[in-house]
Amino acid sequence: MDTLQNFRRTDYCGTFTAANIGQEISVCGWVQRQRNLGGLIFVDLRDRTGLLQLSFDDSTPKDLFDKAASLRGEYVIAATGVVRERESKNPDLPTGDIEVKVTDLRLLAKAETPPFEIVENSDVKDAVRLKYRYLDLRRPDMQRMIALRHKIVKICRDYFDENGFLEIETPILTKSTPEGARDYLVPSRVHPGKFYALPQSPQQYKQLLMLSGFDRYFRDEDLRADRQPEFTQIDLEMSFLDEEQIQTIQEGFMKRVFKEVLDVDVQTPFLRMPWREAMDRFGSDKPDMRFGFELKDISDIVKDCGFGVFADAVKGGGSVRLINVDGHAKDFPRKKIDKLGEFVKTYKAKGLAWARMLDGKVTSSYQKFLTDEENAAILARAGAKDGDLILIVGDVKDEVVFASLGALRIECAKQLGILDPNDFKFLWVTEFPMFEWSEEEGRYQAMHHPFTAPMIEDEDKLLTDKANCRARAYDIVLNGTELGGGSIRINTPEMQTKAFQALEISDEDILAENQAVNRADDGTLKEIQSLDGELESAGSLDAEAGGETQAADSAGSSEPAGSETEAAGLENPGEAVLTSTGTANLDYAARMKLNREQIRSKNKEALLEIVNNTSVADNLKQDAVNKMVAMTDIAEREAAAEMLLEAKGFSDVVVSITDDNCDVVLNMGEVTDAKRAQVEDIVKRKTNISADKIVITPIVVTDAE
Fold first, then answer.
1. Which of 289, 390, 508, 613 would disulfide-bridge 425, Cβ 3.0–4.6 Å?
2. pLDDT tier for residue 567 given thresholds of 50, 70 and 90
3. What distances in angstroms separate CA 75 from CA 110, 114, 122, 138, 702, one per listed residue?
């Protein structure tokens, strides 16, 4: 092998042009390909900027020519030569007008034949790409994306600096606190079985900075469970601004990024649309505005019709709505329509009704069940004309109708190929609902988070009309994808108390969980309840102290976790079972939790293997996904119960859920009726498991090993 001694690279391969003809240059990189034409050899040299052709002919010294003949793909070389004009130019290559007649060639490293060709837009499977990630990252399109990311980050820093923001990195390695986001854990080498936490949403640190007078700052918020380490989220915090001012700042950033990166002029201000309007028109809170096919409500037309599918949906409190795939009836024959019917069923719709207008005739799946007047009214509401296709979904739950038709309009657009990737339609979705109803818990929950301020005109609805109370929350959407979001935060204790009351969060819960936050700062490592579980967030008071703070926040996402323990036999239906007291050494809780998470990790790996196995049927993959979701739910409920029990003064608590049963192990020699009732109440509220299926086991802790 040769060396780089006395070699100095002139510049990167992709930087040379016809202006360099006649100059001696030195370049280095990887061999893309070698073409031996007998007395003529061409080598395409690649680095991160592009390709440059090296030339060897009959005037090249034999040893140099032979060395060039030995080159293979991905060999690492360095070359010196003179730039000259190519006889056969390549208009598709930026350096296609020139080549380098090589006078010195150095072979720095040989390479085996790669498992896939290093080219753009490779169709190699992801598993192979990730196995050979270092090779995958050599591909030009991957290198361009990494360079693009660098450019965007630089623009970010420049733009926000110009607008008065400071870049502040909040603590990364910290103790777990009940702030609501899931943790990325780092095992402690000093304290076996315990972990440090990488917080996913350092909300408390952010609010402290606001209180300290840093009224504009930004940070990189990443490391979410569903994101690669390369993911970057820009987290903005601002004080003393309203929604319009915040949105204007973010619009300016988007405008600058698109101009400097893509040379696209984005029109500002972006369109604003209330959440209610977005749902009514597009069936989605992140609508794609590049095409029509908008939803129309026909509930008033069909509420008393003879077609039970329609009438029953309206009578059940739901709705019947349609989209008009205008001008495309010919593109959707009956077979395709039937597939669309199967498509909406994945969104829990019971089926799809349709009508086609072709050549002056109307055929439909429902017209015989309706009167002529009702059929005509539906077509009129749809604005139907010859060549149109009408698709209808009805259900007793509006959310099913919206989800089905919202996804259906996107699916139709994809099949028709009308989604222009170079058409950028930005949108602010505003006035989100303050609350959303949880069927599982039987109560309202915060749609954004419990610290979001209500619309000023809706403040009196916090306790009296939760369903129609709107929040000062907003999302920025581009072509059907949510890019970010945020809210104006509550800034008075009185309003925060009302918000907690609306969420049925008691003062006792707030105090207990706030105490848990304080205990997390006692200088010791806090035990982590679940590797993937989310700690209860509702009682955190970190927003209460803020002064008109608002942020562009995003909720964390979770990785799956599961359950593996078997519940003890139950007695005395209707109340928690108290088992006999056992003994254990001091680290029993840590060991139980560590064992729990180890088993869950193995279960998760097994399920992920099913999901990622291309030979496994889709229904089995979906079943595996459902099991992982269920595991996550179990872990979250366990963590919430453990956290609140410890906040109430119980120590070394382990809560384990199996099916509909719950085991509670705690460090307590004697459980009085009052303590038993307290444990039972907390576990019921945090796990949604009835008292008759809760088993409480007190453990007497000893110092013996």
1. 289
2. very low
3. 5, 11, 20, 13, 65
Give me 130's structure tokens: 């990730």
Q: Per-residue pLDDT tens for 460-473?
A: 999 999 999 999 99
What type of residue sits at position 88? S
Q: What is the dotted CATH code of the domain comprising 291-419?
A: 3.30.1360.30
Sole residue written with tokens 């008071």? 541
Compute the CA torsion angle 190, 194, 198, 199 (nearest 10 deg).
-140
Dihedrals phi, psi of 605, to nearest 5 degrees: -60, -40
Q: What is the mean pLDDT of residues 343-364?
A: 94
Mean per-residue pLDDT for 433-452? 89
Report the chain's C-alpha Rg in angstroms: 32
Between the CA of residue 5 and those of 26, 46, 63, 442, 705, what are the distances in Å? 13, 21, 19, 74, 63
Q: How confident is the model at residue 225 (pLDDT cuts 50, 70, 90)?
A: very low
Q: Is the peptide bond before 192 cis (omega within 30 degrees of 0)?
A: no
What does the alpha-carbon distance between residue 100 and residue 602 come to, in Å, rounded to a whole number?
A: 56
pLDDT above 50: residue 455: yes
Cβ–Cβ under 8 Å, residues 499 and 447: no
H/E segment holding residue 362: strand 361-364
The segment(s) of the chain belonging to CATH 2.40.50.140 are 13-109
pLDDT in tens, 269-316: 999 999 999 999 999 999 999 999 999 999 999 999 999 999 999 999
Q: Which residues of the chain form CATH 3.30.1360.30?
A: 291-419
Instruction: For residues 528 and 532, give the distance between their C-alpha atoms in angstroms, rounded to a whole number.
Output: 10
* CATH number for the domain running over 13-109: 2.40.50.140
What pLDDT is attached to residue 673?
A: 83
Cα separation, 240 vs 216, whole angstroms = 10
User: CA dihedral defined by 20, 21, 25, 30, rounded to 10 degrees?
Assistant: 90
